[in-house]
Every structure is written in structure tokens, then in C-alpha cells.
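Long-time lurker. I teach an intro course on protein structure, and each term I like to show students one example going from raw sequence to a predicted 3D structure in C-alpha cell notation. This year I'd like something fresh instead of my usual example. Would anyone be willing to generate the C-alpha cells for the chain below so I can use it in lecture? Attribution to the forum is fine with me.
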Amino acid sequence: MKHESIEINSGLLIVLTLAVISIGGLVEIVPLFHIEETVEEVDGVRPYTPLELRGRDIYVREGCYTCHSQMIRPFRDEQLRYGHYSLAAESQYDHPFQWGSKRTGPDLARVGGKYSNEWQTQHLVDPQSLVPESIMPGYPWLLENELDYSQIEDRMVALKRVGVPYSQSQEEYDANVEQFGADMAEKLHVGNATEVLESQAGAQNWDGDPNRITEMDALVAYLQMLGTMVDFSKYEDGHFNQFR
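-- Reply from a regular --
Happy to contribute to a lecture. Here you go:
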């Protein structure tokens, strides 16, 4: 059959177009029904603590995702610069995830522990004082604003409704003890949220001012957690390829 005969016959063209689209769609959709799990089996990934959760809220509020991604792609140049490529498991408790759509600044998926708390604070207040060529704006008000965590329990309950395993009952608490350990289960219990947040804020001098809990405390705590949950040294090279 000549290609011209297909082009001049609109009915045949429609039928063949639908057939090609259907075949292509089936090739993409059918394998999904045979995948038992799309999230990698990995130890260490947990929900955010109350202070980290408020820090993430501020990260979203300030639009940090518009210039920074949190998704290292599985390419050699990406891994040489940022570290192991991002796992789906690392974003399983994000609502919404912070993968981003562009990089005006570097990827932040593994920024946790890369710099000190003092560096992070100064960088957020005056980026050019540390990186002269940076075009990032400063966020000095984060040091000035007291952190509002009056609704932290409600925020945790809202996330619990979409699948984040914060606990409210004894049964849920016991399940978290088994999955995350007793210490972390305490931090993930909704009833402990205010006490846990204040304790974590005071445990480290996140923003350089131990006398107040500021928005800077929360944001730095969140940034210092990013990429630190999974110990990739425990896994052989290529271990996660089976999940791709």
C-alpha cells in the first residue's frame, strides 16, 4: 500500500492512527500491571520531624523549588557532581515532591551536612557574601520571623490522611517503633509535636540564636536533613538498578 493512498483516505488514516496510538499506549501501560512495587526497598527513609516539616513549608512558601531541584538524574555527570541519583523512596513522604523543573542554582537533593549550620544561615541571609557570583536573593527575614508552629499537629494529621505514617493511636505508635525505632517513633507521634519541635530546635544552634525559634531554624534543619537518610555505602553498586 502506497503512503499516498493512506494520506488521501481520511477514514483509513484515522483508523491506522488510532491503531498505532493504541499499540503504543498498551506497550507503556501493560508493564505497569506487572510491577509489584515502584518504591525501592531501602532502610533509613522516614517522615519529617515537626521542625523539618515546618522548614519544608517555608522552603515551599519562599519558592525555593523554582530555582533548585531535588532530583539527581541517573547520569554520570550528575552523580559526579551531586552524588547517587535520587530514589523514589526518598520522596515517598513528600506532598508534593520537590523535584523541580529547572536549575538556576544547584540541586539540593544531597545538600544535608555538606555545609555547616552557620554557612547555611549566612548563605540564606546574604548569598553573595559566600558565593560572589550567586544571583540568589537574600532571605534575611527568616532570622527575624518567629516560627509559627501553632498548627503543627493539624499539619501532621493532614499528611497522615494522605499516607504519611504519623501516629495518633497506640497501635500506630507501636508500628512506627517497629519500622523507625523508638526514638523516631516519639518524634512522629502527633501528640508530641510541639514538645519535639521545641526540643529539636534547642538541640542544635541552627540559626546562631539559641534564645528564639525562628523560621531560619526550621529551614536550616530541613536543608541539613536532605539526602542524609539513606546510607548508600551499605548497598553494592548497581543494587538499585533492579527497581528502575
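Some talking points for your students: Residues 120 and 220 are 7 Å apart (CA to CA). The domain at 50-243 is CATH 1.10.760.10 (Cytochrome Bc1 Complex; Chain D, domain 2).
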